[in-house]
Write a structure and sequence with these properties.
mainly alpha, 2 strands, globular
Length: 240
């Protein structure tokens, strides 16, 4: 199991001591939910019976790869949280349960959106080409996707705020509190990016509503800028 292997590694390089070395029952259940979410986005559950079926299936390879990468990133973010803090209080369990629920619901718009991007807004059934979506549905689609994205990072934000609230119980050092603060900031930024995309989807002219998705391209630069600034400050304060 990847989570168990990760738990056996040394403390992470950010300066946080890992307080959980063995996956809990909560994490094991989480893994099962993530595995089911991956099943929901899988390219096809059936072996192609014709070349046309094979071609249609292969069209979904790129969208599946992106969806898998997104879900893996969410899983990894959750895994790091439990490795760092090892919390199992009622609020953490509740937030994690909500996170898993959103992941399962999020899998559908995630697959649909990226499937749409790599299919020219069409799909084929029994040789017949059908339209996937009317342009009037674009703002609603971007809102559904953005709501799921923002909610995920809101839940991660609340989980890290809860960890900070348990600072004395966990005996978090000044360095660990600083790194926790960095994670809080990045979750706020990602949540705001999702909200901004949703807003633009309705504010832009209908034919340009889809371009609101390009707001998510800001995630990479946001990570780089925040971690660069916070990293320099952390090194200056704590030498790490």
């Amino acid at each position: 199991m990847i989570r168990k292997k990760a738990a056996q590694l040394t403390d992470d390089e950010s300066g946080i001591h890992w307080r959980s070395r063995e996956p809990s029952r909560l994490e094991t259940f989480s893994d099962a939910v993530f595995a089911f979410a991956v099943t929901l986005i899988i390219v096809s559950l059936e072996v192609p019976k014709s070349f046309d079926d094979l071609s249609e299936t292969m069209k979904g390879t790129f969208s599946f790869a992106i969806c898998f990468a997104v879900l893996f990133n969410i899983w990894n973010t959750q895994n790091l949280f439990f490795r760092r803090y090892g919390l199992s209080d009622a609020w953490t369990v509740t937030l994690n349960g909500a996170l898993l629920f959103v992941v399962l619901i999020y899998a559908y718009p995630l697959k649909f959106l990226f499937g749409l991007m790599f299919s020219d807004n069409s799909y084929t059934v029994n040789g017949q080409v059908h339209e996937m979506m009317n342009i009037t549905h674009t703002p609603a689609l971007m809102t559904i996707y953005g709501a799921g994205f923002s909610t995920l990072y809101l839940l991660f934000l609340l989980m890290y705020l809860n960890a900070k609230r348990h600072a004395k119980t966990l005996q978090l050092t000044a360095t660990e509190l600083f790194v926790t603060g960095t994670q809080i900031y990045i979750n706020i930024i990602c949540g705001c990016i999702g909200i901004t995309s949703m807003g633009l989807a309705w504010l832009l002219p209908l034919h340009f509503a889809g371009y609101s998705g390009f707001v998510y391209c800001a995630i990479g630069p946001a990570y780089y800028i925040l971690y660069s600034i916070r990293g320099r400050k952390q090194k200056k304060l704590f030498g790490i």
